[in-house]
Amino acid sequence: MAAEVLANAGIPDEAARRAWSAMTAFQALGDGPRAEKAGVHAGRLILRDAGRDATGPLRDLLGQLAPGGEGHRRVAEMLAEAENRPDRDHDVLITDPEAPAWGKLAHALAVGAHLAVGNGTPWNSLADPDGPEENRELLARDWSVTDPDSWREQIDKLLDAENSDPAIQVVLDCRQPSPEAWSREIHRWCGERDISRETTEALDELSGQVRRYEERFRADGLLRPHGQVTSVYGYDFGRAVNMARWGLNAGFCDVETARDCALTAGYRAYRTYDSWEEFSAAYVLGRMLRFDDGEFGDWYLRSLEGHRILTTDPASPWRRMAWG
């Protein structure tokens, strides 16, 4: 029965089938506590692998557990979570029930939650639902990472906030109260360093792009009414957490190394920003300046959705854990 129910739902995971079969066997032996434990484990595996599509199998599983018991209660909670998930596999907050949602590591992993939400993966685990091959393919395609050495090089750049364009920080450091004064300061800074006219004009144009993004951020609630972004280092720190996850699952580092990198990214983010919201605005600006090119298109809309999920969902780590 377990294999048929799960296969019909598109869940081929052998571990879930074994857990379901173990529950049935313990029930036949009259061992209620162990049957409940196996049932809860099966539920976790089903929810992890199928997300919103887990509702059917979880209902069937719930029907196999005695009402009023702890196992029935916990599987009912999983079913409610599956039913409430958006009907999509991205831009959704997922918490791994088998991984800690509190504590030092969870706090650091929350710094990488923008990408986790965007990709529809659990924010609170260094494990990745995708297999090693998928992680290696992603790293090779998007990061030119093909081995432990190139992975180490990339994550060190992210941890040192050296992956994003350094011109962005030059522009932010030159900021002045008015656009005209900001432009003059950029020209003065460049003139003192004999920087070419073309580069100076590019930096001046970048300041206008930053200003337009910040205006939109304020209108959309990404920034407070008079808020500004002081650096985009958060974009590197947030990606460093995910680079640690990908490196571990690709086999390019061990658990201890991945954990240390995630903790370092979290610590440096806390030292740089004063709140989840301030960090989020910095992360999104860094992402927009790399990919959106002032279009306020899908890159922006999805990043805004991630920000709203993380700052408003009661289950979000940003709502449940204080900054720093």
UniProtKB/TrEMBL annotation:
<dbReference type="Pfam" id="PF06889">
    <property type="entry name" value="DUF1266"/>
</dbReference>
<protein>
    <submittedName>
        <fullName>DUF1266 domain-containing protein</fullName>
    </submittedName>
</protein>
<feature type="domain" description="DUF1266">
    <location>
        <begin position="139"/>
        <end position="323"/>
    </location>
</feature>
<dbReference type="InterPro" id="IPR009677">
    <property type="entry name" value="DUF1266"/>
</dbReference>
